[in-house]
Recover the amino acids of this structure.
């Protein structure tokens, strides 16, 4: 028997007018649901058809009062930058937990961009110093932008944004997009990573994930009190950053440790099971407190609960506004 599916393009999703605070709220609810043990979310699995490239499958059911589920099929291709194509692409499928019928298929690039920034924002909300004034962004692509938008929500006193990207044209494009979004902040384009992070209260790395990481950002370059956020696995921060903090956090301990066990990422000194202070599920469920001083480090790999929560928010709003294209399967 045929049934209807709501197709939501990137343009549809953009036109919803969803903002970072709403998406952060949704992502935080997903974290808390995981922390309460009301969710089913296996670690993301992947295939790697080209060097440093991945195609991941990310399913999740969030139970309890939420009762939402879905699966994302997402590709990450660093060589796409030279082809003028996006790094992150794919589709997000929202599924009715009652019947298993697909409710909606939407652009996973949009979902991934916003939910990843939002997750960093939720982490910063619990571990950041609200008085933070200097933010460093390493890697000035999509994630550089949305992470900065999320930090803007958490750190109202940002007065300087320090930026680094080695690819010609990226800093200029970043400034063009982001300066109007943070009109009170001074933007400084840096020639190297060391000078970019030297005075920073918050550092986020958004560079390509690679199988043989160079880990070009050591502890010695960072301030004593700093929030170090990795959205690029173990590609940028040295192990002496993430293993030195007494409050190493990941978005989901099960996924982080499973991925580490596969023997490719988070090897050679990255924190193991005994060094994880908490995952964000435990933090958002209220099982562990945040920490706001000293070296604080997080690896936010990206988890499927964010996708389900963000896609559900978009779907509900699109239905209410009559947006999108109904496709009969
Ligand atoms: N953790 C998550 O949930 C999550 C979600 C989405 C993307 N990501 C990851 O975030 C990273 C960025 O993704 P994106 O969508 O912003 O890609 P993007 O292509 O839009 O941006 C990547 C940027 O990194 C720059 N870059 C390349 N090498 C660099 C280096 N050595 N130092 C500094 N900058 C460098 C590129 O010029 C580009 O501007 C990727 O690793 C991606 O896999 C993580």
């Amino acid at each position: 028997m045929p049934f209807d599916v709501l197709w939501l393009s990137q343009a549809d999703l953009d036109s919803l007018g969803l903002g970072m605070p709403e998406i952060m709220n949704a992502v935080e609810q997903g974290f808390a649901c995981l922390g309460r043990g009301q969710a089913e979310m296996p670690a993301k699995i992947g295939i790697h058809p080209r060097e440093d490239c991945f195609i991941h499958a990310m399913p999740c059911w969030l139970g309890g009062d939420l009762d939402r589920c879905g699966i994302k099929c997402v590709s990450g291709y660093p060589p796409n930058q030279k082809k003028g194509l996006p790094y992150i692409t794919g589709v997000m499928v929202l599924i009715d937990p009652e019947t298993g019928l697909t409710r909606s298929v939407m652009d996973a690039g949009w979902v991934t961009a916003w939910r990843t920034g939002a997750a960093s924002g939720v982490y910063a909300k619990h571990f950041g110093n609200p008085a933070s004034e200097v933010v460093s962004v390493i890697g000035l692509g999509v994630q550089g932008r949305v992470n900065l938008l999320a930090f803007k929500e958490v750190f109202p006193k940002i007065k300087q944004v320090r930026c680094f990207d080695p690819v010609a044209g990226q800093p200029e494009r970043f400034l063009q997009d982001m300066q109007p979004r943070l009109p009170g902040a001074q933007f400084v384009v840096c020639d190297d990573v060391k000078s970019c992070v030297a005075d920073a209260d918050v550092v986020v790395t958004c560079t390509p994930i690679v199988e043989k990481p160079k880990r070009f950002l050591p502890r010695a370059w960072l301030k004593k009190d700093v929030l170090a956020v990795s959205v690029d696995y173990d590609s940028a921060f040295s192990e002496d950053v993430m293993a030195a903090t007494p409050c190493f956090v990941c978005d989901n301990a099960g996924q982080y440790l499973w991925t580490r066990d596969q023997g490719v990422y988070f090897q050679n000194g990255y924190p193991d099971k005994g060094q994880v202070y908490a995952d964000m599920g435990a933090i958002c469920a209220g099982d562990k407190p945040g920490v706001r001083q000293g070296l604080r480090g997080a690896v936010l790999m990206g988890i499927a609960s964010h996708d389900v929560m963000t896609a559900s928010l978009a779907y509900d709003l699109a239905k209410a506004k009559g947006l999108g294209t109904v496709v009969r399967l």
